[in-house]
UniProtKB/TrEMBL annotation:
GO biological process, any: signal peptide processing
UniProt GO MF annotations: serine-type endopeptidase activity
Transmembrane regions listed in the UniProt entry: 60-77, 97-116, 136-154, 190-210
Keyword list, A-Z: Hydrolase, Membrane, Mitochondrion, Mitochondrion inner membrane, Transit peptide, Transmembrane, Transmembrane helix
Name of the featured protein: rhomboid protease
């Protein structure tokens, strides 16, 4: 988590630094496009047009969705099954403990499971990135995967049920809880029942109650501990974590800036 937030702070610094250069390059490219004859049916232009039509949040989660699809395809390779079970499922009784805490966040064996998780992530992507920015969001998402898996480990050790888990649900619960905490009066609806609407605050309370009951009663339909850990982390981060972590990144960014400036000076500008 520390590495994720440090990398996000440096990423934001580099992104802001290159924004002017990117703007000038795009202006030059637009000028060249007007000068050149336009090609009909240019696939590259169609892709660029689609990409530019997406919100910043949707563009940010596209990489996450692509990673999940890639890992899902790896599960279909028979020779990869042993590796996938070892590193892409989280289980406190496994020999590999640390790396699966993150890698299992991008792992789905069921197509329906992956599709449902990615749909929720896509639906909330614009809201969460508008709240946190793409760099901070990525740090929170990766941290949420690790923290929700850790809570799952603790629950499994406490109950003695050593079952492998996988999926992005814990991290996505962090996203959902963060948005619902910041915008509790927002109206939500279920995809198959659009006529029934409810507030985000009510949805969050219902989800926490459901996962708390599932954890207490030992239900095995979902990894309720991971869901609950992810939701509580999302609520905590938007309430306290943003102030305690992200707003105190200045010393790191300053050190990175000084290092970049020193290296640039040594290289003759």
């Amino acid at each position: 988590s520390g590495s994720a937030f440090a990398s996000a702070a440096v990423w934001q610094y580099e992104s802001l630094k290159s924004r002017v250069h990117t703007y000038l390059e795009e202006a030059r490219a637009d000028w060249l496009d007007r000068m050149r004859p336009q090609k009909r049916g240019d696939f590259r232009k169609q892709v660029n047009s689609w990409w530019n039509s997406l919100t910043e949040g949707q563009r940010t989660v596209t990489g996450i969705i692509a990673a999940n699809v890639f890992v899902f395809c790896l599960w279909r390779v028979p020779g990869m099954r042993r590796v996938m079970f070892t590193y892409f499922t989280s289980d406190p009784s496994s020999k590999a403990l640390c790396s699966p805490m993150l890698l299992s966040t991008f792992s789905h064996f069921s197509l329906f499971h992956m599709a449902a998780n990615m749909y929720v992530l896509w639906s909330f992507s614009s809201s969460i990135v508008s709240l946190l920015g793409c760099e901070q969001f990525m740090a929170v998402y990766l941290s949420a995967g690790v923290i929700s898996t850790f809570v799952s480990y603790v629950a499994k050790m406490a109950t003695g049920r050593f079952e492998p888990s996988l999926g992005a649900s814990g991290a996505i619960m962090t996203v959902l809880a963060a948005v619902c905490t910041k915008m509790p009066e927002a109206k939500l609806a279920i995809i198959f029942l659009p006529m029934f609407t409810f507030t985000a605050g009510s949805a969050l309370k219902a989800i926490i109650a459901f996962d708390t009951a599932g954890l207490a009663l030992g239900w095995r339909l979902f990894d309720h501990a991971a869901h609950l850990g992810g939701a509580l982390f999302g609520m905590w981060y938007v309430t306290y974590g943003h102030e305690l972590i992200w707003k105190n990144r200045e010393p790191l960014v300053k050190a990175w800036h000084e290092m970049r400036t020193k290296n640039t000076g040594k290289g003759g500008g």
